[in-house]
Amino acid sequence: MELTEPLQFDHEDRKDIYEYVERHGSVEPEELRRSLGMEPRPFGHHVAILKRNGTLEAVDGALRVAYEDSAEEEFTADDVSFTIRQARQEDLTGLVGAIRQAIGGKTYVDAETVADVVDSEGVLLRHNELESRIFFVACVEDEVVGWVHLKHPELDKLSHTAELTLGVLEQYRGLGIGSHLLERGLEWAAKHGYEKIYNSIPSTNEEAIAFLDAHGWETEAVRADHYKLDGDYIDEVMMAKGLYSSN
Question: What's the pTM value of the predicted model, to 2 decimals?
């Protein structure tokens, strides 16, 4: 299922099954059936249809929301090999840890918020009537060392936009990982018809601002004293990049 597809269900029970899985990230079928109070035969039929339609998938026996982007890319820089792929539910702990370590100086407020939300919900990927979000991760020896995150509000007026956050663990910077992550995120966004990607950063995060500027992002506005970090007022730098859809 594509993250940009509208949610449509031709049976209320299928809608209930999907929404339960979406809220929990990953769930065992029997636990799901009992939680919804469904009989085995109709439950099995509805799950089969949801899997057939590409809405749900089974991984190691558990059901989770299915997404279409499964390609994994491999790179090597300075004898460090890393892969970039779509994040999976099982990456949640490592991803939250990577975000929090990468923003240890608390100079990336939006990313810090993403980590808090994902950690509290216990769900990595979202696609519901209010919002959609997706992550791509960079991994070294199957451990998450960087991420790019796109969040899309399910509002018609903002349907052409998505918010992006990105980061790499300090010890893995300078290898091009951030650039590859950014490219993967923007390629995905363009493919799915987004026209504008935006990011808001405290002005003290000069490294992130310079990185985006070097990759063609523009500063649209600066909101004075928008953040208050450790008692100091900090400006917010609002940056964006226009995209041309490949559809």
Answer: 0.78
